[in-house]
Amino acid sequence: MSLSQEQIVKQAIEALKLVNKTSTEANALISYLYTPDLILEEHLSKLRVFLNLPRPTKKEKQDAGYLLEEISLISFCGLDRLHKH
User: Fold this and answer.
1) How far is the C-alpha of 73 from the C-alpha of 66, rounded, in Å?
2) What's the pLDDT tens digit per position in 35-48?
3) Contact 31/79 with Cβ under 8 angstroms?
4) CB 81 within 8 A of CB 35
5) With 60 as the cut, is the pLDDT of residue 81 above it?
6) For the chain, counts of helices (H) and of strands (E)
7) What is the mean pLDDT of residues 63-77?
8) How far apart are CA 14 and CA 10, in angstroms?
9) Residue 47: CB partners within 8 Å, gap ≥ 6?
């Protein structure tokens, strides 16, 4: 008896709930599910600069907000790999 796609997905989700996400063995699974865009590190470095400002101006806060929006978008782009398999 073969499983339907719905059954396979449900079983996979249940199995993922059992994975200890902090274990070194989970790294292979995490790498398979999510591949960060290389530009993400550059954006995170820029964000660190904003976070270290002692008294950011209104413009700097606004720029940091725009940067966070870009980081969010880029982060979700890393999930696109799932649709390519």
Assistant:
1) 11
2) 888 899 999 999 99
3) no
4) yes
5) no
6) 5, 0
7) 92
8) 6
9) 64, 67, 68, 71
Kindly state the DSSP code that residue 36 receives in the 8-state scheme: -
Distance, in Å, from the CA atom of 82 to the CA atom of 66, rounded to the nearest integer, reads 27
In which residue are the tokens 């997905």 written? 9
- At a CB cut-off of 8 Å and minimum separation 6, what does 20 contact? 26
Min mean pLDDT across 36-45, 60-69, 73-82 is at 73-82
Rounded Cα distance between 61 and 53, Å, is 10
Count CB-CB contacts under 10 A for residue 4. Answer: 8
CA-based R_g, the chain, Å? 18
**Closest by CA position to 34, among listed 84, 85, 83, 80:** 80
